[in-house]
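Worked problem 6 (solution included).
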Amino acid sequence: MQNFNIKVEVFREDDLYVALCPSLNLSSYGESVEGAKKSLIESVEAFIEECVDMGTLEDVLEESGFIKINKIWQPRQAIKEESLALAI
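Solution. The predicted structure is:
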């Protein structure tokens, strides 16, 4: 068993909630915030299991910016996050 910390963003699209794990580029949806998060967890678990089965988990995580600290895979941490307005 491996331990992971992931960042999750949840937003609303029409009648549904979308949960996004940007570090793995995975998303899922549900009719509530909790439903979307639960669905995302299931998607992440399936993704991780497939990577384990293929023997590519460490490579995939490292390519996605994860580092292993005290036996726990941690996503890369932004120094700063902000929203920028652009006029193009």
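Discussion: The first helix runs from residue 33 to 54.
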